[in-house]
Amino acid sequence: MKISVVKNILEANQRIAEENRRRFSESQIMAINLMSSPGAGKTSLLERTIRSLKEEFLVGVVEGDIQSTFDAERISQTGVPVVQINTGGACHLDSNMVQEALGRLDFRNLDLLFIENVGNLVCPAEFNLGEDFKVMILSVAEGDDKPLKYPLMFRESSVLLINKIDLLPFCDCDPALIEDRALKINPRLIIFRISCRSGEGLEQWTDWLRRQFRRTPASAA
Amino acid sequence: MKISVVKNILEANQRIAEENRRRFSESQIMAINLMSSPGAGKTSLLERTIRSLKEEFLVGVVEGDIQSTFDAERISQTGVPVVQINTGGACHLDSNMVQEALGRLDFRNLDLLFIENVGNLVCPAEFNLGEDFKVMILSVAEGDDKPLKYPLMFRESSVLLINKIDLLPFCDCDPALIEDRALKINPRLIIFRISCRSGEGLEQWTDWLRRQFRRTPASAA
């Protein structure tokens, strides 16, 4: 009984995710679903990424939080359109919440859409939103055992950003071990070491985004 | 429909939590439900706490993980009995999983039981396990906005441990702001600033545990 309820929820989610994906594709929008534990640096990454790309691309953000508009206010300082989703307790975004949020965005003026998920290393990985890429952030302060303990998100993601590398001298964390363990779970995972505080490594990440944008079939049209 | 399913799950959980609570009370066991984001330091805290208390108390641990036995192996190095729960994907422990695990512990040789929950700042707060106290850990690397964004866990917890204070010089985090924001949500919250790496503040935490153990009605019998 419980299992069939979960199955129905995931099937309904997948159906609406496909609708979102079709809409993104029709409007030549590249959508990124950004996931991590609380406090790994999703919003800081977005601030940095938007500032570096907003002269080249029309960027928009869907901001997912359980409650509060704290992050949406931070993002709106960058000058790009932001739509807030409050999940009202739910620990992840689903495709239906995103679909409702899309109605509040001007698709004609959008190239790149970032969807910042709820801070949670578990549940968001189970819910497709219709994104082109899932990108996850892991802070080195969380430790190098995380791929072993939360493998699904590493398996589902296209990109792993190892953030806060400025803290490495003060943490018991070996980033090479994170990389080895993550690649064992997902050999195609693309990995960048970054620091949103110092800016280190961010150029490689934004260059990757630029290349993907050119490659997506929609934007090639 | 979806809401009534969730309601049924929470009611069933509460019923079994009460059974667990009764069993703890009958056996004069004090049970602590330990919760945090991934990598905030639950296992390191347990290692330190057990080493400091195991001469005075009979300690046991229930170790909750989605998969893997990594943390249980770390804890078993301290020489206390550990029972592993693998949730098989689920993002939190529930009272039924704990009840099954209790069958594998010798209640006659137990004073203090620590239940390490799955790393997740959201869902575990909704599921009572029958514990005497919920204790949460927040790492300063997660930032000082977390009480605003994940209020439920701050509301449900009796104790907040602000961990990794050795990283404060290198993080944009004001621990006084964490405390102010957390106390607005839960004015009775007891807060300790600690570092599981340097050991700072841990004596105040273990002293608190000692006092609670003496105070619980069961142990006073």
In short:
Two copies of one chain form a homodimer. Chain A has 221 residues and is α/β, with parallel strands linked by helices. Chain A has nine helices and seven strands.
Describe the structure.
- The structure is a homodimer of 221-residue chains.
- The first copy, chain A, has a seven-stranded parallel beta sheet with strand order 3-2-4-1-5-6-7, with helices on both faces.
- Helices cover 41% and strands 18% of the residues of chain A.
- The first copy, chain A, contains nine helices and seven strands, in the order αβαβαβαββααβαβαα.
- Chain A has one domain: 3-Layer(aba) Sandwich (Rossmann fold), CATH 3.40.50.
- The mean pLDDT of chain A is 94.
- The radius of gyration of chain A is 17 Å and the shape is globular.
- Chains A and B meet through helix 1 and helix 5 of A and helix 1 and helix 5 of B.
Oligomer: homodimer
Shape of chain A: globular
Q: Biggest β-sheet of chain A: count, sense, barrel?
A: 7 strands, parallel
Quick one: CATH superfamily of chain A? Answer: P-loop containing nucleotide triphosphate hydrolases
What portion of residues of chain A belong to β-strands?
15-25%
- What's the Cα radius of gyration of chain A? 17 Å
Mean pLDDT of chain A, nearest integer?
A: 94
> Secondary-structure element sequence of chain A?
HEHEHEHEEHHEHEHH
